[in-house]
Specification:
Its main location: membrane. Belongs to the exbB/tolQ family. It is found in: Cell membrane; Membrane. There is one protein chain. The termini are far apart. The chain has a 5-stranded mixed beta sheet with strand order 3-2-1-5-4. The chain folds into 4 domains: 74 residues; 70 residues; 93 residues, no CATH class; 183 residues, no CATH class. 71% of the residues lie in helices and 7% in strands. The protein is elongated and about 185 Å long. It has 461 residues and is of the alpha+beta class.
Length: 461
């Protein structure tokens, strides 16, 4: 019973609401346990008193800090009021100084305004001028000068104003000079090298081998144009770059120093070969038909010219020769001198009909080609327009250049068709005239033979 009571007392002591100190040794009796509990309460009371003392000290320090913060806030408020007063005084003083500066400047204010405007315009011109490729970094002093004239702290010096005048005068002078100097040039492949370049005023710049250059204002570098102008322009530029005196022809682009809009449009214009490629399959078919028609017409023209020559020689001869249509027709009369008139007329007509297909060979084909060539061109145009409008449907019409380029390419086949049809019609007319000339001679001579044969028959009768 005592043992059970002892265990219950230990459990109660360990689970009390008040905290107790856990001892390392185990109580051997109730009195000892009661001593342990009492000692724990005494220790806990001491700890509570220490915590209360620490809390009171912290509270006192917080009050002190609060008082210090209030004192600091009061001091800062006084300082803020003082600074506000000084700021207002300084504002009045600055306004008074600005008024004094304006009065002292007088007409110089208008002068500085004009200088600022001129410097700004000149800085914009320097950014895109070809002269900057020869004299780089000319804009730095202009920026500093504009900042001075725009502010109120500093004024530009006489040397800076004179330099502005000098740079303006140098730009005008260099615009009328042709100068050669060394500069770094980038090829279309990205390779850079120092090469001799020639600047023609502020219009164009070319290399010593005649290649036109483009000035990139963002980097201040020179790039060789990927596509050069066609014709003799590059040759002229090369001659100018290597000339030492005298006059040389040169293709000047007056539209600007950065390659020039006119030069760019001229370079970007498709060549004849590129135009032909725009025609596509239909354009190539039209060209093939055109070449065939021209070759056929030239061949028939040569043949008919020879036939006309032989017929003319036959007209001067009394004996029929089988190397020409007229001789073969006359041979019918020589082989049948006693034939009656009606039969002879039929024989001669038959002989002429045999010669006419040979004489008119290929003429109908030329006529057909002249008729279908424009139709083929129209077919290519309609097909190209359909493709163009399909692209507009998908991508929109936001880029007029792309739409105009598609329409221009579609019209190439129409141009090819007309280029084939017009000379084909002319060649057909000339060739047909030669053929009709021969046929006319055959008809005249056969009619004459029939008349002579009829007269001879009537004379015998």
């Amino acid at each position: 019973m005592k043992t059970q009571l002892f265990k219950s007392a230990i459990f109660a002591a360990l689970t009390m609401a008040s905290a107790t100190v856990v001892v390392a040794q185990e109580a051997k009796s109730l009195d000892q346990l009661l001593g342990f509990v009492k000692q724990g309460q005494i220790d806990e009371a001491k700890e509570n008193k220490q915590r209360e003392a620490a809390f009171r000290n912290a509270k006192a320090k917080q009050g002190q800090l609060l008082n210090e913060a209030k004192a600091m806030r009061t001091a800062q408020e006084k300082r803020s009021a003082q600074l506000e007063g000084e700021f207002e005084k300084n504002e009045l003083r600055v306004a008074d100084k600005q008024r004094q500066l304006k009065e002292r400047l007088g007409t110089l204010t208008e002068l500085f305004g004009h200088l600022t405007s001129t410097a700004g315009d000149l800085r914009g011109n320097f950014g895109s001028s070809l002269v900057s490729a020869q004299f780089p970094n000319r804009e730095a002093f202009l920026d500093e000068m504009i900042a001075k004239m725009s502010g109120a702290e500093k004024l530009p010096s006489i040397e800076e104003i004179e330099r502005l005048w000098f740079e303006l005068q140098r730009e005008m002078t260099e615009s009328g000079r042709i100068v050669a100097f060394d500069a770094e040039v980038s090829t279309p492949g990205g390779e850079k090298s120092v090469r001799k370049v020639v600047r023609v005023g502020t219009f164009n710049m070319v290399t010593e081998d005649g290649k036109y250059l483009q000035y990139v204002s963002e980097t201040g570098g020179l790039n060789e144009l990927a596509r050069q102008p066609s014709g003799p322009v590059v040759g002229w530029a090369k001659d100018l770059a290597n000339a030492t005196e005298g006059f040389s022809p040169f293709g000047v682009d007056p539209t600007g120093p950065t390659g020039g809009t006119f030069l760019a449009a001229l370079i970007n214009s498709p060549t004849l070969g590129e135009r032909f490629e725009q025609g596509g399959t239909i354009g190539k078919a039209i060209a093939a038909v055109g070449v065939f028609a021209i070759l056929l017409a030239l061949w028939r023209l040569v043949v008919l010219t020879g036939v006309n020559a032989r017929v003319s020689a036959q007209l001067k001869s009394d004996k029929a020769n089988t190397n020409n249509p007229l001789g073969r027709v006359l041979m019918v009369h020589e082989q049948n001198p006693t034939m009656d008139t009606e039969t002879l007329e039929l024989k001669l007509s038959e002989a002429i009909l045999r010669e006419v297909p040979k004489i008119e060979f290929g003429l109908n084909l030329l006529k057909i080609i002249a008729a279908i060539a424009p139709l083929m061109g129209l077919l290519g145009t309609v097909t190209g327009m359909i493709i163009t409008f399909q692209a507009i449907t998908i991508f929109g019409a936001g880029d007029p250049k792309a739409m105009a380029g598609g329409i221009s390419g579609a019209l190439v086949t129409t141009v090819l068709g007309l280029l084939v049809a017009i000379p084909t019609v002319l060649l057909h007319t000339v060739t047909s005239g030669q053929a009709k000339k021969v046929i006319q001679v055959l008809d005249e001579q056969s009619t004459g033979l029939i008349a002579e044969h009829t007269e001879a028959q009537l004379g015998k009768a």
